[in-house]
Structure formats: structure tokens, C-alpha cells
Backbone:
């Protein structure tokens, strides 16, 4: 199982050149076959790790040696790392949970910086007593938990010497690190300590991009309060003779239960949760949630409950991402491109979401010939009895045993795929057709909305219902422009200049530069000017390259 854990969230995805990708794929399939098959097994292992971990705020001048010496008094340390987020923090994972208890036994109460404190003890601690005379943490590696600024990424990509390498480089720069994933599970675990006060059997599970393999450093932390363990396995058979049952408070609907649970939990997080700030209860949304910022980790957190369908879509995206390394690379590239052009946004609105974009990439890969990934219906047909899942009347069944999935041989390069992706969506028949990864084929649109992407599990719903015509137009215009830019790049450049720090943007890098297409301009005049200057110099350099070649 360790082997499997290592391959999940692996950071070396795509290090194989595109030509060797068929081979890499088969190697991965073998890996998959001898490990546990489900995302759940991996989640369980990460969760258990998190429960043996603590989060410690450190003075920036803490000596690592002294720090470790003090902590190891309480037991063996498996892993630790430092990171910066409004100050220095350390995540420390002990080998056993007893060590965590021992450390907490040793902890004192805060010296009076506030008049009073809420006496809720948690595994978020502060280091005391380190004097400023301690030697600075010279050799200590400080992990960054945020993603590289776009301009730095553009420079990095410009130094690569093939589009394939650019796509791989982008994926490597943006994907979650092992440390960041640990921190995400630790925040879930800290939150669980609050929720178990009411529901001792509950768990807090991360879902969405924190675990589906498509998460970018800095993405939000989606969490799901799972209360199913409380009722599981009970009421299976009616015992004869006397027995007792629980008296429980009735509610009008599942939704009302979710709302009342989240309302109380939200209040606790707000009133008692160390480091949790800006708590908002958004209980009337389609999917009720509590949103807050966890300051020590810097994560924007969304806590939902009774959200099993979202967990299923997480599992599905994870599966697709594991089937072929090109899936994750393309999703990262498209997500990054979309963010750079304001096609997606952190503010809710008429924008296309990352989830929709991901489904669009999957659909495109199903439409290749031969297809790179199978349809959802095919994955359902491969499912065994243990995979059966019906949630609120929706069929969410699909195979969990990766070894049953036979892939077709498709050796297209990332370069080819990225440019064909833009071409595909530059000319898609949005007005008539719907995107459907269940069938893997365009379907006639059932509703009149600008963009129709069928919800994979709740098939009567459209996951991009929010998108308006203007946003779709921008998306299409940008796909057209990117198709054009890649064709230009192909015609003029044969790689970046690795020796120079100021390599001219080329290939994928040009796609991330501010756009010139109508209606896509930024509001800010100053930025517009920068934009046009950058594009002008870019076009100049392309022209020069052209002249040199001819
Ligand atoms: P980020 O933008 O990186 O946070 O991507 P994400 O995949 O985590 O998206 P988000 O935080 O918006 O949503 C979390 C998860 O909820 C997604 O991965 C999906 O599983 C699910 N989800 C999000 N939006 C929708 C939607 O419109 N319909 C359905 N059915 N599920 C959704
Ligand atoms: Mg998310």
C-alpha cells in the first residue's frame, strides 16, 4: 500500500518525454495493479498521518536542532517541515499518537496577550522560549505554499525547448507538493477535533482539487463532514424480543438536517476554532456550506456536509487523472491558461468553473481517435457489485479496480493535444450541442443555455448553467487566439533560449501573456498598455525569427 500512496499525488508525472508516454502508462498500470484500488484507501492513510501531526507556530529564528531536540522528548518524529504564512510554522508528524498527547500535556496556557481565552485545546501550538540569540535556521528549507506568479512561470516556460516540456514544466510548477497535501489533511484533522465534540464517529474528508489530482498550490480546501459512520450498519435486521432505539430529533428534510448541523459547527468554528477567521455560513446555497479562512495554513476552506455526489465526482476525476499522465498535464495547462485570462475567477459569477473546464478536457480526450480515456458509461459497465452506488436516486456506479480498464493505444504528444484542444473548443457547436462525458459524444442540447455540460452523476443538471453568453464568447475567442498563437509559434520557433534569463516567450508561454482579442481586455488602462507592448515585442521577435529562417 505504501507503493500506492507514493504514486498518488506523485510529483514526477510527465517527466517522461511524450514519446515514451505509452511505455510510462503501462508501467503505471502495473503499479496500480498491486496496490489498493480506491482513492478511499489513500485518504484513510493520509488522514491517519494527520492525526499524529501537530502544527506549531515558530519564531522565525528558531534553531531547527533545538526545536527537534525538544519535540523528540515526546516521541519519535517521522517527518517535519517548515513553511511561511504570516509567520513561520512547522508541521511535525510523530510516529505515534501518544507523542501528540504527551506534547499537549506539556503545553502551557497562553501568557496574557488577550484578557481571556476560550479554553479549547487543539494541536495548533506556539513555540515558546526560543531566544533571539538562537542561531538562524540556516539550512532549514522553508516551503512555499503558494504557486509561482504568472510572470515567473512565463519566464520558466520560455526556457524550455519543446511545447511538451513546457506543459510538463507547468504541471510540475503548479501541482500540490507532498507537504502541501499533508498540511491540507492536517487542517481537516484539526477541524475534526471540533466536530467530534458533537459527533464522535464523524470524519472530515477533503474532496475537490485538494485530492483529485488537479489541485494547484493555493487552491481552496473543500471539506466534507461525513456523518454516515454514525448510522452505518445499524437497523439491518429487526431483533426479536426487547430492544432499544435512539430517540432523535426529527427534521423536515435532509437539507434541513445539513443546514442545522452546519449552522452549529460553523458557530463553533467561529467561536472556538484557533486560527479560523472570517467564518461565513452560506446555508441557503444549493449545497449549504461554511466558508472560512484558516490563517496558519493560509487555506480558504469550504466545509459542506451530506455531499456524497461531490465525493464521487472527486473519485472519478482522480481515476481519470491516474489513467494517463497526459490528462493531468492538460488539465493543469488549461486551468492555468483560463486563470491567466480571467476566464475563471475566485469570485462566484457567470464564469466557467475549474470543474467545468476539467470536464471539457476529459470530453476532448474521449473524442480523440483512438480515445485517450474511456467514457463514464464504459467505466460503469466495468463496475463490480462492490462498486454499486446510488445517491439520491442517481446512478454513481463506476469501476474502482483500475486493472479492469483497458486503454487504447494513442501516442499523441502534449503539443498536439493542447493545440487541438483549443481548436476543438474554438469551433464547437455550443448552440446545438451538449458536452457529455457519460456517452463521450456530443448530445443535442436539452436546455437553452449558452454552455451545456451535463453533470456526470445528476444527469438532468448542467454544471455550467451559470455561464452567460458573454463569458462563453470570451472563452471561444481566446481558444481561437490560442490556436493561432500556437500555429505561429510552430512556424517560427524551435525552442527557447536556455542560456538567457530573458528568453522570448514562445509556445505555451505566449498563450499565457495578456490577450489582445476583443472583449477580453483588462479594465485597467495601465495593464492594457503593458499588454499591447508585450504582444508587440512578442510579434516583433516572431517576425525576426521568421526572417532569420527564410
Ligand atoms: P478549484 O477551483 O481548484 O477549487 O477546483 P475544484 O475541483 O476543487 O472545484 P470547487 O472547489 O469549485 O468544487 C469542489 C468539488 O465540488 C469539485 O471537484 C466537484 O467535485 C464538485 N463541484 C463543483 N462544482 C460543481 C458543480 O457545478 N456541479 C457538481 N455536481 N459538482 C460540482
Ligand atoms: Mg476546490
Residues:
Amino acid at each position: 500500500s505504501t507503493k500506492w500512496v507514493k504514486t498518488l499525488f506523485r510529483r514526477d508525472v510527465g517527466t517522461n518525454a511524450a514519446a515514451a508516454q505509452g511505455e510510462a502508462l503501462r508501467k503505471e498500470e502495473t503499479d496500480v495493479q498491486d496496490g489498493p484500488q480506491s482513492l478511499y484507501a489513500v485518504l484513510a492513510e493520509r488522514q491517519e498521518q494527520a492525526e499524529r501531526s501537530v502544527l506549531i507556530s515558530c519564531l522565525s529564528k528558531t534553531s531547527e536542532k533545538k526545536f527537534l531536540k525538544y519535540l523528540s522528548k515526546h516521541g519519535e518524529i517521522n517527518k517535519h517541515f517548515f513553511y511561511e504564512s504570516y509567520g513561520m510554522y512547522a508541521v511535525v508528524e510523530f510516529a505515534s499518537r501518544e507523542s501528540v498527547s504527551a506534547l499537549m500535556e506539556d503545553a502551557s496556557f497562553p501568557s496574557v496577550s488577550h484578557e481571556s481565552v476560550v479554553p479549547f485545546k487543539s494541536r495548533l501550538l506556539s513555540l515558546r522560549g526560543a531566544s533571539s540569540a538562537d542561531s538562524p535556521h540556516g539550512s532549514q528549507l522553508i516551503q512555499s505554499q503558494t504557486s509561482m506568479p504568472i510572470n515567473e512561470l512565463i519566464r520558466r516556460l520560455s526556457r524550455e525547448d519543446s511545447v511538451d516540456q513546457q506543459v510538463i514544466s507547468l504541471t510540475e510548477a503548479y501541482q500540490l507538493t507532498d507537504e502541501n497535501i499533508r498540511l491540507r489533511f492536517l487542517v481537516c484533522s484539526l477541524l475534526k477535533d471540533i466536530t467530534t465534540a458533537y459527533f464522535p464517529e464523524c470524519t472530515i474528508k477533503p474532496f475537490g482539487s485538494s485530492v483529485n489530482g488537479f489541485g494547484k498550490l493555493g487552491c481552496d480546501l473543500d471539506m466534507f463532514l461525513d456523518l454516515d459512520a454514525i448510522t452505518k450498519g445499524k437497523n439491518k435486521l429487526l431483533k426479536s424480543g426487547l430492544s432499544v432505539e435512539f430517540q432523535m430529533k426529527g427534521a423536515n428534510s435532509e437539507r434541513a438536517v445539513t443546514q442545522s448541523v452546519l449552522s452549529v459547527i460553523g458557530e463553533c468554528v467561529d467561536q472556538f476554532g484557533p486560527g479560523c477567521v472570517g467564518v461565513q455560513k452560506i446555508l441557503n446555497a444549493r449545497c449549504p456550506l461554511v466558508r472560512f479562512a484558516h490563517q496558519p495554513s493560509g487555506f480558504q476552506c469550504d466545509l459542506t456536509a451530506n455531499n456524497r455526489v461531490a465525493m464521487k465526482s472527486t473519485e472519478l476525476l482522480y481515476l481519470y487523472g491516474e489513467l494517463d499522465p497526459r490528462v493531468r498535464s492538460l488539465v493543469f495547462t488549461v486551468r492555468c491558461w483560463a486563470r491567466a485570462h480571467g476566464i475563471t475567477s475566485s469570485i462566484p459569477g457567470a464564469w466557467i468553473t475549474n470543474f467545468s473546464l476539467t470536464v471539457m478536457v476529459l470530453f476532448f480526450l474521449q473524442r480523440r481517435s483512438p480515445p485517450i480515456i474511456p467514457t463514464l458509461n464504459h467505466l460503469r459497465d466495468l463496475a463490480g457489485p462492490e462498486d454499486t452506488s446510488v445517491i439520491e436516486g442517481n446512478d454513481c456506479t463506476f469501476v474502482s479496480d483500475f486493472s479492469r480498464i483497458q486503454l487504447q493505444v494513442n501516442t499523441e504528444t502534449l503539443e498536439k493535444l493542447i493545440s487541438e484542444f483549443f481548436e476543438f473548443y474554438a469551433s464547437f457547436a455550443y448552440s446545438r450541442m451538449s458536452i457529455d462525458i457519460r456517452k463521450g459524444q456530443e448530445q443535442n442540447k436539452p436546455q437553452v443555455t449558452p454552455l451545456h455540460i451535463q453533470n456526470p452523476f445528476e444527469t438532468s443538471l448542467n454544471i455550467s448553467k451559470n455561464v452567460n453568453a458573454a463569458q462563453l464568447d470570451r472563452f471561444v475567442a481566446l481558444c481561437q487566439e490560442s490556436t493561432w498563437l500556437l500555429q505561429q509559434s510552430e512556424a517560427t520557433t524551435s525552442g527557447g533560449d536556455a542560456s538567457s534569463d530573458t528568453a522570448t516567450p514562445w509556445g505555451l508561454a505566449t498563450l499565457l501573456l495578456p490577450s489582445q482579442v476583443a472583449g477580453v481586455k483588462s479594465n485597467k488602462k495601465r495593464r492594457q498598455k503593458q499588454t499591447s507592448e508585450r504582444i508587440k515585442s512578442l510579434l516583433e521577435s516572431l517576425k525576426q525569427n521568421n526572417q532569420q529562417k527564410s
In short: Residues 1-36, 520-527 have pLDDT under 50 and may be disordered.
